[in-house]
């Protein structure tokens, strides 16, 4: 036990000395925290950041306009709001000019030309929680900035980009979890028992391996139906093969060691030998492959969303954002597709660098 603790401490110290590994881990943790707490601080905290204003669509980063905020009378569930955002958010109306009469607020909706002679619209002052004009001006009429601009539906691009973190990291965690359960179980059984059992499992691995990952995911997704959770399952069911191959190879090399022979001589059952004695000693390469699978899951989900069979609108997804705006690359607004593309690139690169750092720290021979 003390020898195991010493090796773990050495691996930890070695990992801490890896600049890129530590930096990428800190980046991933920061991104994850931003995604989890997103609805507490993003500009558009409506459900799925889906608050549209078509008269300010496709505005450039840093765009600023005056808006009127109309209060919603429905009470929001605080806990539900933290996880899902405001189901009935206050309505935001971009405007060009406004004026008050006795009991009415008149305004001209925002227009890119800045025209003030367009048809005015009116809002009764009773709509607002405040009754005085000065109070309404202080609380419900203000300038709003869109840091990354707006998409083609007039939604805040920054808010949807941050909420996209939830999809990418969630699918990574769930897919890796499913792949670990299936891969470790089949790999351990095949490697330990050998014979016909191993032959059948290797046949299953090779058949699955021979099918292109994206094609297999598409087939499973179409069988299960389009949706958020179906994608999780589909990606997880296609990523267990590498885990199973690695676990099988490690089990074959470890099961002939003296401490396993001693465990058999003591009469321990096969299940105990596998889960108590073999698996704890072969987890290092599994941890490394899990980091790579996490990155692969993000890429696969982005590809599925780009093809329209991943996370369905209005759920914000980085792949879906690229799908909605890739045509604008040639129409003078390439950032609409480049920004979510950079988010995917940074996330995948971070997980790959963490995997490399773990490989070096754990001294895995591949």
UniProtKB/TrEMBL annotation:
Signal peptide location: none
GO cellular component, one term: plasma membrane
Segments crossing the lipid bilayer: 20-42, 167-193, 200-222, 228-247, 278-300, 335-358
Highest taxon, organism lineage: Bacteria
Location within or outside the cell: Cell membrane
Keyword line: Cell membrane, Membrane, Transmembrane, Transmembrane helix, Transport
Membrane topology reported for the UniProt record: Multi-pass membrane protein
All copies of domain ABC transmembrane type-1, residue ranges: 165-355
Database matches in InterPro entries: BP-dependent_transpt_permease (IPR050366), MetI-like (IPR000515), MetI-like_sf (IPR035906)
GO biological process, one term: transmembrane transport
Chief localisation class: membrane
Family: Belongs to the binding-protein-dependent transport system permease family.
Listed name of the protein: ABC transporter permease
